[in-house]
Amino acid sequence: MRARRVIAAASVAALGVLSLAACQRSAPDVAAYVGDRTYSLERVDGIYDEVQAEYGDVVRQAASQTGATPSPEQLKSPVTRQDVVNLLVSLELGKRVAKAKNIQVPDEVSPQQLEQSLRVPASTEYTKLWGEWVDLLQTFNQQLPPAEVSDESVMAVYQALAKVGAIPGGLPVSEVRQRFGEGAFVGSATALSLALEQEADRADVSINPRYREVGVPSLVSSGQSIIFYSLPFINEEGPVTDISTPEASPSSPNPDAEGTAS
What is the β-pairing status of strands 206-207 and 18-19? Predict the structure, then answer.
């Protein structure tokens, strides 16, 4: 049951952030400020380096069973430092939203449930943080009223899915809406995006320029696996169209299903 809930926990979101250059909170060794929390570049590098080291070990062990020698490219996890910043910032904002709305977030998703899909061992901080984040996503999907599903928000989600190869690119909005069905997951994702953006304003979020394009981590079920990606921030005009992470819980890799995605 828990594994099924993880798959159903997809969600798309985004937040508007400020460049460090625009404010006094601009220490060069800081990756992000969220309220009174500071995330150093050293912390980001540490999480990233642990992912790369553990991932490489897993690949080597698998290759040794067949006598193969993995290439340097095969030893490198697709996880980036930007992914780490996205996760840290979004998780902190999500916790603040839950506290402000008096929403109780149950601890239901374990790192072990995510390590195969993330392809990162459960022992890493990255996977543990993802476990906390998915708990928040599932709870917000249940607690936050869905927002209106506009053509702009539908296409932002669609382009994010197309970018990671989960759905064919170049489709018009009419066909995308048909594939998405009622698009309930877009409404849930937009509601979360707005909640996080409002909290980002209250928390005076500032991001180091090298990580300025913060996106909200999300996931989508492909039917056989979970796809992780992220959608860039939403501004006052609505979601930007070059994306990077949503989530949903469609029943197939290209979300032709009408299921919900959180």
Answer: parallel
Tokens of 49: 């380096």
Q: By the 8 A CB rule, do 87 and 126 touch?
A: yes
Amino acid identity, position 61: Q
The whole-number average pLDDT for the span 124-153 is 92
List, as one string, the DSSP characters of 150-212.
Answer: -HHHHHHHHHHHHHTTSS-SS--HHHHHHHHTT-HHHHHHHHHHHHHHHHHHHTT-EE-GGG-
Give the global pTM.
0.78
CA distance 17 to 135: 24
pLDDT digits (tens, 9 = 90+) for 50-109: 999 999 999 999 999 999 999 999 999 999 999 999 999 999 999 999 999 999 999 999
Tokens of 205: 């979020």
All residues at 6 or more sequence positions from 76 whose CB lies less than 8 Å from its CB, including other chains: 52, 55, 56
